[in-house]
Amino acid sequence: MQFLTWTLGLAAAVVSIPLLLLLYFLKLKRTEQLVSSTLLWKRAIQDLQVNAPFQRLRRNLLLLLQMLTLLAILLALAGPVASLFAAKGQRYVVLIDRSASMNATDVRPSRLAAAKAGARDFIESINTRAFFQLQESGDKVMVVAFDERSKVMCNFTSDKRQLLAAIDAIEPGDGRSKLGEALTVANAFAQSLGDEANNRSPLAPAQVILYSDGRIADVDQIAIAAEGLVFHKIGTSSHNAGLIAMQARRSYENPDEVTVFTTAANYGPQPVACDIRLGLNEDVLSVRTITIPARTAGTDETPDEPGKTAMEFSFLHPGSGVVEVRLLYEDDFDRDDAVWAILTPPRQLSVLLVTEGNPVLESALKACPISRLDRATGSEFDAMDHGILTAEQPYDVIVLDNYVPAEIPKCRYLVFGRPPKGIDVVVPGQLENQMIVDWRSRHAVMKYVNMATLFAAKTYQMILPREAEVLAEFNETAAVSLIQRKGSLFLLAGFDVLDTNWPFEPSFILFFYNALGYLGMQAGAVESRQLGPGDPILLEGLDSYQEVTFESPGISRQKIQVDPNGSVRLANTDKVGVYTLMPDEKNAQAFAVNLLDSQESHIEPAEELVLSGEIVRAESGQSIRAGIPLWPWLVLTALVLVIVEWMVYNSKVRI
Amino acid sequence: MAAAMGTTQRKLSDLLDPGFMARLDALDVLSHKVLKGRLQGERRSKRRGQSVEFADHRPYVAGDDLRFVDWNIYGRLDQLFLKLFLEEQDLTVHLLVDASASVGMPDREKNTYIRKLAAAMGYISLAGNNRVTITLFGDGIVGQVANMRGRAYLPRMAELILNTPTEGTSDFDKACRQAAGSRVGTGVMIVVSDFLFKEGYESGLRRLIGGQYELYAMQTLCPQELEPELAGDLKLVDAEDADSSEITVSAALLKYYKRNVTAYCNGLKDFCVRRGATYVLANTSTSVELMVLNYLRRIQLLR
After folding, report:
1. Chain A residues whose beta carbon lies within 8 Å of the beta carbon of residue B198
2. Which of A306, A444, A549, B175 could form a disulfide with B137 if both were Cys (CB 3.0 to 4.6 A apart)?
């Protein structure tokens, strides 16, 4: 046994024991009673004292009982604990899992709260340095919160208040749990240089106390001695169904059509029947009832497999929006019940028209939904820095009007007339009076395009490589074809539109619309709007020092300043949900942070941690303590003593 | 005489009610020593007296010796009067009454009782034509009327008894010394007190017992003293010397107290009996009337 605050107890004793003695002599405020003579009373008192030695004992018994009561209270004040761990001055690392699965509510109010409560209990029981005590002999504790990344909440200290404040400051996150980094950090702090510089002997490794549900992704990569780790299991239930995969995609053929693929998984032992709701911009589009089978119990070699149900939703939506898929099912873990995807509108293209002057093409392009149309003559195009064109891709589509450039920067081309060189298309010569004989009306480019009436007075004869896709055919050669070469995509029409009747046909505009849409779809990968928890949001191309409004789940609007490079970087994406960055009111940029992690969705707490080769069993039930506090027993003793004293006193007074 | 009696009785009636006084008229103090009274008349003496000196008349009360009825007066007035002779009343009744502060405690009950008892005894003695001396003592004698005889002295006696305050400490030895010095002749000495003297009653009583006096010690205690009903933590303050003693009332303490009271009373009784004196314990819960008319007659102080 040792005392946590023995000096405090001693100080209290120094004050209170003489006080009690003083009180014992002063305590009775006797009522004055006038009597005829005290003669007989004095004799009676003498008799009492002489004839009844037990009376004296009883008088002393009261004092004795009071002293014992006081002693018990003083001892309780001194905070005795029965030590469970080794010697004084032990060092502990308290690791608290703040990953997504710790948000489960099977332990009220949440697993993280339970873990924090357990850690608080532990902190309360450590042996701290007391008042007036100069040497640092107290236990030292370090608090680390971890999910994918670890965060040192408090370095090694004996200050309970600081430690408790550090524990209170731990916020729940929605990330995965990875213990490796946390342990590395803890070890780095544990072997601080300060101790070695003071010529101290190497410190014993700190005792690691882990509060977690045991769903740790990298548990098999952790090398730590099993006896150095105490694993406190948090959580009881495996009752959870959630979404573990989701993707929203626009169809190639029809960019307006959005298809949402999602997979729901059930980690509980019972099949789950529930509704799944598809929403777009807070409007409900569809609700379906699904049944997710129960998990299949694994064997020793194979882990449990959750029951899975995959489903697919389709809807038409040309614009941007936030797609939300929500599993309407009450379970113990809500972070995986909803996933979001950000729909971006089909791209607004910027187009470069290389022509010597072609009002038909120009007006057709202007009719299409493009954001920028630049014009250049052939010589101007050749004069452009093709390296920049390749690297930065300022144009999504380059329209070549009967011009054969010297070099072809990487881009997507719509070519009218003679095809460019170097794309393995051989042009033997020109043909005249060609009629369309067939076209692939189901291809995205040819959709709704009626080519039947197209007549070309002159066209180039093209011999295409084998993998080229022919979309429309003249009677003697290909009319429209698709070919990929050198990272560029070419949509070739082997005729000059002014040599055809096409500009007068409605299909002309439709073809341009389709062609630009198709080529635009092929333009570089859209920046990722789907993030995992903790992934940073990066938005570039803003004005430097601009104020950007930022909205995140759980936090209201806040303003962020763009850095000098014109980019905004946000790292605090700990929570799942939709994050919105608004450089201005019209241009909201949404980012979806989804859990989508079957490790975290599987909330059933692990009974043991299988470290690299070693197994650490969970300590559940009782909270871990550095020592068992004995003060409640002392207070109880004091109470009993007070009762006994009262009884003794009463028996003395009773007549 | 009638007028004098009227005022006397009014004053005395504060202590004794008239009915009681009427009954007291029938009583007289009896001395067992039947001393060398120059007797003749009411009291038989060992020595036959020669002349009879008339002293007074008093109305006849049932039980009086018919031999002493003054038939001449009866013949004139048709009323029975008794002739009283001086020689016959040579009995001195000396009342030594405690007037210290202690008798005034815990309430006035004990004081009243003592005064009543003294008045009754005084009345009987005066009515019996005895020589009566009443001495009130505290720290020494605080008031005394000596050598009264006859009913004419009733007002003086009443005045003394009623007007002497109850205060001060008691010095029983001193009082006894003074009282013993002041007494003359033979007779009966009656000490009415609570006998709660810190310095002890023995030396004082010893002074009184000698000589021609028959001693009666009437210890007057109230129920509060005999069977105290106290509880709690008390600081008992002595009424006389303000001496205090702190007690925590307990069953054991009360048991010892009662045992002490009994032992104290018995000690006093033993002391008296061994020296030929008579001890009377007067509990104030017994009425004065009962005490005088029954008990004192039974011990043959009165007849």
Report:
1. 37, 39
2. B175
Question: Which residues of chain B neighbour A30 with C-beta distances below 8 Å?
Answer: 233-235, 246
Give, to the nearest 10 degrees, the angle between helix B251-274 and helix B202-209.
Answer: 20
Q: Are A98 and A119 in contact (CB under 8 A)?
A: no
CA-nearest of A305, A283, A288 to A296 is A305
Whether the CB-CB separation of A36 and B103 falls below 8 Å is answered with yes
Helix axes B109-127, B154-163, angle to 10 degrees: 170
A199: left (phi over 0), alpha (psi -120 to 50) or beta: left
Q: Compute the distance between CA of residue B200 and CA of residue B181 in angstroms, rounded to an integer.
A: 20
CATH number among 3.40.50.880, 3.30.420.360, 3.40.50.2300, 3.30.1700.10, domain A349-522: 3.40.50.880
How do strand A537-539 and strand A478-485 relate by DSSP bridges?
A: unpaired
Q: Which amino acid does the sequence have at A200?
A: R
Strand partners, A516: none
* A503 compared with A186, residue with greater pLDDT: A503
Show Cβ contacts of residue A332 under 8 Å, excluding neighbours closer than 6 positions: A104, A105, A106, A237, A239, A240, A603
Structure confidence by residue, pLDDT tens digits, B43-102: 544 333 334 556 678 888 888 778 888 888 889 988 888 877 655 446 788 899 998 888
Distance from CA of B137 to the nearest CA of A (A): 16
Residue in A522, A511, A523, A448 with CA at minimum distance from that of residue A480: A511
Question: Which of A12-21, A174-183, A619-628, B265-274 shows the lowest per-residue confidence on average (mean pLDDT)?
Answer: A619-628
Q: Which residue of A has its CA nearest to B265?
A: A40
Percentage of residues of chain A with pLDDT beyond 90: 4
Residue to substitute from A29, A35, A48, interface B, most B β-carbons within 10 A: A35
Domains of chain A, residue spans: 2-30+50-79+635-653, 87-236+605-629, 247-345, 349-522, 537-591
Tell me which amino acid residue A588 is: A
Q: Give the residue extent of every domain in chain B.
A: 36-88, 90-298
ipTM, interface predicted TM-score of the complex: 0.75
Which among B233, B238, B239 has CB closest to A31?
B233
At residue A153, the pLDDT reads 87
* Same fold across A247-345 and A349-522: no
CATH number of A87-236+605-629: 3.40.50.410
Please give the Cα distance from A147 to A536 (Å, whole number): 15
Q: What is the pLDDT of residues B172-211, one digit of tens each?
A: 899 888 888 887 777 888 999 988 888 888 998 888 887 7
At the top level of CATH, the class of A247-345 is mainly beta
Residues A441 and A133: their CA atoms lie apart, in Å, by 90
Q: Does B171 touch chain A (CB under 8 A)?
A: no
User: Is B105 within 8 Å of A34 when comparing Cβ atoms?
Assistant: yes
* Residue A182, token pair as written in the block: 């946390």
Cβ neighbours of A371 (radius 10 Å): 10
Q: What are phi and psi of B229, to 5 degrees?
A: -115, 85
How many CA atoms does the CB half-sphere of B277 hold within 13 Å? 27
Q: SS3 for chain B, per residue?
A: CHHHHHHHHHHHCCCCCHHHHHHHCCCCECCCCCCCCCCCCCCCCCCCCCCCCEEEEEECCCCCCHHHECHHHHHHHCCCEEEEEHHHHCEEEEEEEECCHHHHCCCCHHHHHHHHHHHHHHHHHHHCCCEEEEEEEEEEEEEEEEEECCHHHHHHHHHHHHHCCCCCCCEHHHHHHHHHHHCCCEEEEEEEECCCCCCCCHHHHHHHHCCCEEEEEEEEECHHHHCCCCCCEEEEEECCCCCEEEEECCHHHHHHHHHHHHHHHHHHHHHHHHCCCEEEEEECCCCHHHHHHHHHHHCCCEC
CATH number of B90-298: 3.40.50.410
